[in-house]
Amino acid sequence: MIELIVVVTILGLLASVVAPNLDGLSPKYRLRSGARTIGQNISWARSLGGGVGGEYVIQYNLSENTFTIVLPPQEDEDPDLEIDERQTMGTITVPDGIEISRIMHPDGGSEESGVVDILLDEYGTTGSHIVLLTNEENNSIAIYFEAIIGSIQYMPEDEAEFPRW
Q1: Where are the domains of the chain?
Q2: Which terminal residue of the chain, N or C, has fewer Cβ atoms less than 10 Å from its own Cβ?
């Protein structure tokens, strides 16, 4: 009986290590994984802004396929400190084969290159945007962040648009 319990435990540990790594095997699942990573980090930055207070920034670098959560200025720093001079929580790279192809703004504008800064204020009223990800098979997914209610929605690129009230 003890041997059986040990074998089941070992198999469970192996499955818990191997199963999460299967996301990277298929371009479709890498795309979904990249979208989930971005969505979770947007939600996290928004909750930090509301909980801790201060203006957090999500900084997308479209040419390098990375994004960074930029912290608000510290108490001993100038409150008007430039975004590029602030501390960050580290840069996150989207999975291989995935590209941040475009950032869409509520005013109808969009950006397809360079560095894009999305401000998330402490009241949760700013920062709505849509991130479009594309993989090497030209599949795409849109991550829609609605700042006021704090929701993240995942949808096909052709359905990605801001609601018109």
Answers
A1: 25-159
A2: C
Burial state string for 21-55 with b = 16 or more CB within 10 A and e = fewer than 16: eebeeebeebbbbbbebbbebbeebbebbbeeebb
Please check whether residue 31 is in contact with residue 133, taking contact to mean a CB–CB distance below 8 angstroms.
yes
- Which of 24, 48, 18, 50 lies closest to 37 in space, CA to CA? 24
**For every residue of 25-88, which 3-state class applies, written as one string?**
HCHHHHHHHHHHHHHHHHHHHHHHHHHHCCCEEEEEECCCCEEEEECCCCCCCCCCCCHHHCCE
* Rounded CA separation 48/72 (Å): 10
Tokens for 145, please give them: 């962040």
> Which tens digits make up the pLDDT trace of 105-126?
999 899 999 999 999 988 878 8
Which CATH number applies to 25-159? 3.55.40.10
pLDDT tens digit sequence for 47-71: 887 777 788 999 999 999 999 999 8
